[in-house]
Amino acid sequence: MTPASRLAVGTIVVGVAVLGLKYLAYVLTGSVALYSDALESIINVATAVATLAAVSVSAMPADANHPYGHQKAEYLSAVLEAALILVAALLILKEAWQGFMAPTPLQAPALGLAINVGAGVLNGIWSFVLFRFGRRWRSPALVADAHHLWTDVVSSIGVVIGVALVAWTGWAKLDSVIAALVAVDILWSGWKLMRESVGGLMDEAVPPDVQATIASVIATHATGAIQANAVRTRRSGNLTFIEFNLVTPGEMTVADAHDICDRIEDALSHAVVDSSVTIHIEPEQHAVSHGAVTVA
User: Fold this and answer.
1) Are 93 and 161 found together in one domain?
2) What are the residue boundaries of the Cation efflux protein transmembrane domain, all occurrences included (predicted)?
3) For a designed S-S bond to 233, which of 141, 206, 237, 274 qualifies (C-beta 3.0 to 4.6 A apart)?
4) Is residue 203 within 8 Å of residue 105, measured between CB atoms?
């Protein structure tokens, strides 16, 4: 089992524990807002299972049917997670509306809130762990899970404050209003995650700062060539694919052109971690006047 898979298993264990605590808080209080918090934790457990499957598949080596590897399985997991987040938000809105139309007084709010706070702290700690290692290992699935858990932490804080106000003021309808606000926040989080995940599946280019780094490395280490053009990038899980045409003088030998390519690939491997570089050699008559990287 890979380190990422072990973290995914840990997320399932934490998710089940948090779900149990939050559901207990709901049962003790009867709060719609706490119910919405517990409902989101059910989604946390489901997506943790999807994350485990994704990181396990993405760790599989390339094969004849998947020559570029299996890393995009993580984006599929992230898309699924985003879809489940959106479903959870809609279910919470439904419960909030029903609670608003037929409000009920809270029971044992202090004990319920204390249990919910404990669940939130556990979620916050694990979210930090997932952020740290997900970014270090460039795992979209783990980072998506971390985002989801942190959203849960933020919404839990709002829920605890809101339910405390309900207990203090006695205004039962405020409980449903808080649940609806939590649902809106979750909807926004789910939309952002969906947008990022679909971008990965659609082979979006790397961010502008990474593109600038790639262009700088090529310009610095392609001495002897004329230019690099048609530079294309995309990400697949933790891998960054870089492809471009390297225009060389017509009289340059294949061996010399190959040496330049080796030099560029070595430099890019240090500048862009986990990169896969493909270079196509072109004669000088294929040089372009716009959009090319000029060799220093």
Assistant:
1) yes
2) 12-202
3) 206
4) no
